[in-house]
């Protein structure tokens, strides 16, 4: 290993800034290094930067999860509501990388919203501003109970601008603002914000992350209210010692379960481990039911399990009683992921209900982390396929190494497939249609990525659709794979998915330039299916007759001739007959038996007998216009191949 390569490892080890990675190349150039050395260093630099980006992404995800788990632990030992809310706002600001974060609460008496906690704010006017319901972005979030994001506050007409609010926002210098509701059941009690003093776009993952913090904040406020109600009840009742002792035991159990959950998550436990831990603490049986999956993990539950998940969602995430069971919804950023179902404890006290709800919150974090890991792998698969198509001249050893990490075997034949969703034409050409088309592309990419991971292939979103690189199974053809893929993706999306396939690509990592050529062939086949009104089907060039011969890059003339008139040629060779020449004369004579017999100098009955034999070999529709055109083209190509080979 060269000294310069060691330098990159040292830069990675100490977490140097991206600009520092240019130094080894600049030093080598200054010392007069040759082009080959410089090219190697440049390649090593790019690899090191990619490793650095991957490490940064992992550190960021670890920081997010650690902060969320720390927040959950704070809630388990809640003592000071202001301290917990301040910690939530500080962590939200840090992890989203914004300049300002703040939390507002609704004032039911005044009918407006006021600032409770701010972090990074420098304007006294902003810190004291009050928003009427429906006014400004925050007022709209509080009124509609939905997240809102704007990358340019003053240019956004979706919410009501007032002089007071705009003056406060301008005084703080805010431009981009994201707000998510703090909800208790169906009631919105406030809003959690992250904002920047410059235009920026908040990603979907950032919205989900802030929503998770908002859920923590709502639980903290709810817990504080619950404790306040408990203290009030203790003051009104004369059984203070008994009630304190009873609630102390329950709170200890809640603290125990949260400590156990935190430890479980940090050591890499899963969703069912969470259910087991909560089962032990609550003294019942807790099972996880996945959204949309019926009775996953719930013995004896049928369609009713979907209903209880819906009930929990409608109650805003609170545990709800269904018969003798308790159900707590599991969601992330408003998206339903499933529910925790507690059996065997029909009489559940309020604090134990909160324990079940918080266990559902931790479960959502685990599922969110698992999804993030899956999406990261999908992106890596897409990046490798993009490189094979766009940059096939990259280091083949590196390509092979990346493929091996994804369990993609470059030594077996692969097929490139181009896929797209083909909705029925005639719908309104409005913004909803555009959003549906964008959503279709995302759903197609997600389904294709899952298929690629299952079959140890690759998938990437490209050119308004999706491209896949899948291995051929034993005895499987490109056409078979195209039809299976169209059927599978269409069934998953419940929309027609059209798939065009290339000819098989062999030794793709030894000759990666084949992939781009094959992608072009698959795209042409996909377009041809659209022109032939075969939406929702899958096909390769070999399925499309002479049109496939024109579309394919391989120009498989012998295969086309064999598929079209191969049986007639083989019959002539076995029997010593003259069916091929009879066919040629028949078409040359305008499909007239009388003129054909003159051309061949035989009786017209002989012509009729030969044509009858051709019909039995090629099928009854061989004289239809489309078949006749293909047969004539195959006859010309067959004759040309005989001339070329000297036959």
Short description:
With 647 residues, the chain is of the alpha+beta class. It has helices spanning 3-14, 23-30, 35-76, 81-96, 124-127, 136-144, 163-172, 204-236, 240-266, 271-282, 304-314, 350-390, 396-405, 431-454, 478-493, 513-531, 545-551, 557-575, 579-588, 593-600, 604-618, 625-645; strands at residues 100-107, 112-119, 130-132, 148-150, 176-184, 187-196, 285-290, 320-322, 325-332, 335-343, 414-421, 458-462, 465-471, 497-501, 538-540.
Q: How many strand units?
A: 15
Poorly predicted regions are 294-306, 549-553, 643-647
Assembly annotation: single chain
Our count of helices gives 22
Mean pLDDT: 76
Strand order of the largest sheet: 3-2-1-6-5-4
Helix content: 55-70%
Main beta sheet, described?
6 strands, antiparallel
Radius of gyration: 34 Å
Shape: elongated
Kindly name the structural category.
Answer: alpha+beta
Distance between the amino and carboxyl termini: 60 Å
Note the beta-strand portion: 5-15%
What order do the helices and strands come in, and which of them pair?
Elements: H1 3-14, H2 23-30, H3 35-76, H4 81-96, E1 100-107, E2 112-119, H5 124-127, E3 130-132, H6 136-144, E4 148-150, H7 163-172, E5 176-184, E6 187-196, H8 204-236, H9 240-266, H10 271-282, E7 285-290, H11 304-314, E8 320-322, E9 325-332, E10 335-343, H12 350-390, H13 396-405, E11 414-421, H14 431-454, E12 458-462, E13 465-471, H15 478-493, E14 497-501, H16 513-531, E15 538-540, H17 545-551, H18 557-575, H19 579-588, H20 593-600, H21 604-618, H22 625-645
Parallel strand pairs: 14-15
Antiparallel strand pairs: 1-2, 1-6, 2-3, 4-5, 5-6, 7-10, 8-9, 9-10, 11-13, 11-14, 12-13
Helix pairs in contact: 1-3, 2-3, 3-4, 3-8, 3-9, 3-12, 4-8, 8-12, 9-10, 9-12, 10-12, 18-22, 19-20, 20-21
